[in-house]
Amino acid sequence: MNDMTAPLAFAAADYKSDYKPIWCPGCGDYTVLSSVTKALAMIQRPPHEVAVVSGIGCSSRLPAYTTCYGFHGVHGRALAAGTGLKVARPDLTVIVAGGDGDGYSIGGNHFLHACRRNVDLTYIVMDNHVYGMTKGQASPTTEPDWDNKLSPGGTGVRAFHPLVIALASGANFVARAFSGDPNGTAAIIAQAIRHPGFSFVEVLSPCITFRPEQRQWKELVHAAPVAETDDPARAARRIMTDDGFNVGVLYAGSRPVYARAKEASASLAEIEAEFAL
Amino acid sequence: MSSSNRQAPQTMESLMAQALLMEREAVARYTELAEMMETHNNTEVADLFRKMAEYEGHHVAQILADMDWAEDDFAPHDAGTWATAEPPESVPVDEMHYLMHPWHALQLALAAEQRAVSFFDNLVREATSDDIRRAAESMRDEELEHVALVKAWLQKVPKPGAEWAVDPDPPRYAD
User: Fold this and answer.
1) Which of A116, A208, A275, B77 is the one with CA 20 to 30 A from B130?
2) Cβ of B28 and A34 within 8 Å?
3) Model confidence over A237-256: pLDDT tens digits?
4) Are strands A122-127 and A199-204 parallel, antiparallel or unpaired?
5) Does B42 map to a domain?
């Protein structure tokens, strides 16, 4: 036996639970789940040392489909729960997963501050530019001219640009992946988990039920033409000028990672005394 | 994307490792598709995908036996050797539809088998030794048998009409 055939303690299947996904057949989230389990097999972290936290939405069902610890929480608050968990249990690998509505709209403020805090966790957003679970309303990343019965002629509102926001807010790792390339996505997620600080992976994950035209994404995605950078200015220029289908690691920085204070400088009683009436 | 790192295998072991990975991913994907269809009560197509997973599983077993590898050997996620984003024999998830018929499923399976034939055909051309060429030819011929098998199967299932995807109670919102 040599390197090529070395047995591993954990295979991707070891991270998959017995619960079968109830996503629509054809949904990109199936392969994102597969990428997450492959990424965990790449890093060989035992399932009980990993926690997957989510909010609400189709993609937020993901924790139940893994054998890791899971927390299916409140709409838009997945990052708050994930941050709390990581600070309380820094020994765990914490992955937060969700969709564009949950993460950028309802949870938009948490997204900004999770990037800013730079706590060592990985945030995976399955972005399909639509609210799928509630049957097809425009989300923050929906194109302004997406014409449908609920927003005739489109919303006319500029789409949210999550990668630029993440970079500007302090995320230490910013990448874009595509569900149609599950092995490439797995490699990016594994790199994101290994990278210190807040790692943000935006996965283009088509909703073929409410946005069937997104099947064309596989024709549009392409590998990032330049290597990853640790220079935020270069990364910002690249992200601001790309076509939205540039796949790869766009920024891998060395910003200071959040660390819990070693000791309190005052007791609780002392602090309370200051506010006593 | 995975496609950028493609390299022809230089040793028999790397050729067989690549073939094993492709077949294992095909088994995993067909199983996943079968589960998808079971969840959505399309049992006919689910059964078909299970059957395809079984066929691909025979290839996995054959490669393991030929190479004297154990079931849990080899990382199942060594990407980066395909000319396409996914291994050639994997049916794309986004081609699924909850109302699809066996005819559609077999069309997808046929395309996957044909991609596998092309994959091994390329390896035959790129082979750096006679051993590797012969092994690649052998696997290509097995894939050709699968192509013939799926084509024969297709003759036995009716082609659905144009209205096959019409659902009187669709998942879209009502206006």
Assistant:
1) B77
2) yes
3) 999 988 999 999 999 999 99
4) parallel
5) yes
Question: What is the reported pLDDT for B172?
Answer: 60
Partners of residue B87 in chain A, C-beta under 8 Å? 183
* Chain center to CA of A25: 22
Query: pLDDT (tens digit, 9 = 90+) per residue, A69-113?
Result: 999 999 999 999 999 999 999 999 999 999 999 999 999 999 999
Determine, yes or no, domain membership for B166: no
A257 and A120 Cβ atoms separated by less than 8 Å: yes
Domain that holds residue B40: 8-72+93-154
Give how far the C-alpha of residue A81 lies from the chain's centroid of Cα atoms, to the nearest Å.
14
Cα–Cα distance measured from residue A120 to residue A176, given in angstroms and rounded to the nearest whole number: 19
B136 assigned to some structural domain: yes
What percent of chain B has pLDDT above 90?
71
Cβ contact A146:A138 at 8 Å: yes
Q: Tokens at residue B49, please?
A: 């995908």
* Distance, CA of B58 to CA of B47 (rounded, Å): 17
Phi, psi (deg, nearest 5) at residue B72: -95, 10
Q: State how far residue B33 is from chain A, nearest Cα, in angstroms.
A: 8
* Number of separate domains in chain B: 1
Q: At A167, is the secondary structure helix, strand, or coil?
A: helix
How does DSSP classify residue B63? H
In-domain check, residue B77: no
Q: Helices in A106-198 by DSSP H: which ranges?
A: 108-117, 162-169, 182-194
Contact state of B13 with A183 under an 8 Å Cβ cutoff: no
Per CATH, the number for A8-275 is 3.40.50.970
Distance CA(A192)–CA(A196), nearest Å, equals 8
Name residues 44-83 of chain B within 8 A of A (Cβ): 67, 69-70, 72-77, 79-80
ipTM: 0.88
Q: What's the pLDDT score for residue B81?
A: 66
Quick one: DSSP state of residue A170? Answer: T
pTM over 0.90: yes
Q: Which amino acid is at A220?
A: L
